[in-house]
Amino acid sequence: FRRVLFRSLRAFRKAEYLAAVAPIAQQHSDAPLSAVFDFGYSEVTRQVNAKGRITNPLAVERTLQLGVGEEIAQLERNMNWLATTATVTPFIGLFGTVWGIIGAFQALGLTGSTSMRTVAPGIANALIATAMGLGAAIPAAVFYNHFGNTVKEMTARMEDFSLEFLNLTERTFEG
User: Fewer Cβ close by (within 10 Å): the C or N end of the chain?
Assistant: First the structure.
């Protein structure tokens, strides 16, 4: 995502007028900036087609904000699964641990023996459950933080892009 984002941002910054960006946006259609551009460009086009100029710059700004919001929602769409996995699976592992320990104690009670052979299967199951819970939770927490930071960075870039879009719109239609 980052590579595509920065490539499309560089290409946008090279454009001297707004209409020159449309082919760039199509070329980088998988970049979140292209979707934001499409939101803003459609509003600019609507206003220019109706009156021959930009009549409501605030509408363009709000439309860009809507585009940024849509893209952020798209980027964050599956983040809740990572967060849920990171927070819930340790408890599932803990539940398995408790269940395994209960099994070990039941084996002690049934056999009356305190040998390792009696309690080992229950304890082994308890440790496996703990390891599985942590094995799911740790990567989920790492990826949640990684993707969360990526989304924050991309959000900042999209907001900056919106400001640059407004500046380019002003230069194109007011100057």
Answer: C
- Cα three-residue angle 141-142-148, rounded to 5 degrees: 85
In the chain, which residue ranges form alpha helices assigned H by DSSP?
2-14, 21-27, 32-51, 57-75, 79-111, 116-174
Q: Which of 15, 9, 14 lies closest to 31 in space, CA to CA?
A: 9
140 CB-near residues (< 8 Å, 6+ apart):
82, 83, 85, 86, 89
pLDDT at 101 over 80: yes
Copy the structure tokens of residue 128: 């496996």
**Where are the alpha helices (H) located in 76-115, listed in sequence order?**
79-111
- Provide φ and ψ at 17, rounded to 5°: -145, 160
| Whether pTM exceeds 0.90 | no
Residues whose CB is less than 8 angstroms from the CB of residue 102 and which lie 6 or more positions away in sequence, other chains included: 122
Distance CA 80, CA 86 (A): 10
Identity at 74, one-letter amino acid code: Q
What's the pLDDT at 17?
Answer: 79
pLDDT digits over 28-79, tens only? 777 888 899 999 999 999 999 998 889 999 999 999 999 999 999 999 998 9
